[in-house]
Amino acid sequence: MERYKTEPLKCWKKAKELRESYYRNYANAHEKGGIRWAGSGWSFDSVPMGLGEDVYSLTSEPYGAAVASDPKFSLECLEASEKAGFARDLCAYMRNYWGSIILNKYAFGGQFPKPDFLWTAHICCSHSKWYQVVSELEGGIPLRSVDVSVGPSPPFGEITENKIDYIAGQLLEGIEWMKKITGREFNDERFIDATMNHFRSTSRWGEISLLNQAIPAPLDEKSMYSLYVLTMLGGSTKDVADFYDELKEEVEDRVKRGIAALSRERCRLMSDSQPPWAFLKIFRYLEGFGCVSIGSIYTFGLTGILIFDAESQTFRARPIPKRPSTREEACRALAEWQLYIPLYQQFYNPDFKSRLMVALAKQWKVDGVVLHLNRGCEGTGLGIMENRLALQKAGFPVMTYEGNMGDEREFDEPRAMARFDAFMELLGLKRLD
């Protein structure tokens, strides 16, 4: 069969360095007189940056995934959470995170670095309760949660002035709260700079996701997991925003030159939800059949800002907004921007996600869909069987396998691999030499 040209990503080393420095800087913040805060990956992370250049965050879902990728440490954390009385059917990231605190062990070495305050956004049912428990475990850390669950956004609802005012008002109140609990002044220009970096990072990731429509796909999803996560770590920093500019240029060049993520691409798959992080080898197994996973509504739309045109049923990237001139304008711009996150829509109606997934499968020209029945996340698992039916009705072969993104005890590897083999047979694919 035809082989495409392939080569490693030139900026891969830089992505790895950015991730490592993120977790190291958080751990060492107090040694430099800095501030630490923790919250969800969907927190408005540009807001605390107005407090100074020495403010560092720990976004907790990526940290939970990092723990999950180390099965031995993850099991210790999960068992510690269960011993403390937390139910096993709760969010797996949350249980890994809580267990890390209870054990006082940091996934990257040493004791768990205690945050100075907690700043999160609430749309998933777990988020605010997650950090309420963190506050209690750590002796009463100040907690502030921003409610963003204001109803559907375009194309399934409107972004009204009331919705924007509701969220922006909470951000403005949050700024005054941060000033009070830290004793620091708030620099509006530094906050606006961080907001523009956030817009740039998330817009660029949307554009990079769109580039993966190319045949052959320039990126594979397993690699994309290591790339998209930077938007949830330091997306409001200049270093990360600059990295996404660089990554976009490199992926554009790969498309232009026909550089493939998989040299023997002959089947394009789409996934959904977080993968079982301890078993990412399933993607390499599928590559043995010539299958490349091009991404998913999760990988593209967790942080990538994509606009979905209901009339044409296609996605496009949202342009970066003009620079706000005041604190109030920045808070309103952030509120509106965040409401365009595609994954927000699934929390309101499974049909919204089904329509996005069907459109994505068509636009990215996929041959089949692999759905992870993920017991570890109530949010991404919501309505997944309805999504399956919608994709099948649209003519896409679909397979499901059971597992858990953050708890390896719930992944039956032999059973899952048997299902993958059966799906490959259904698609008429045999293993390549």
Number of helices: 16
Count of distinct strands: 10
Strand order of the largest sheet: 2-1-3-4
Uncertain parts: none
Concise structural overview:
A four-stranded parallel β-sheet has the order 2-1-3-4, sandwiched between helices. Strands 6-5-9-10 form a four-stranded parallel β-sheet, with helices on both faces.
What does this structure look like?
With 433 residues, this protein is an alpha/beta fold. Helices cover 47% and strands 11% of the residues. The chain is built from 16 helices and ten strands. The strands form three sheets. It has a four-stranded parallel β-sheet with strand order 2-1-3-4, sandwiched between helices. It has a four-stranded parallel β-sheet with strand order 6-5-9-10, with helices on both faces. It has a two-stranded antiparallel ribbon with strand order 7-8.
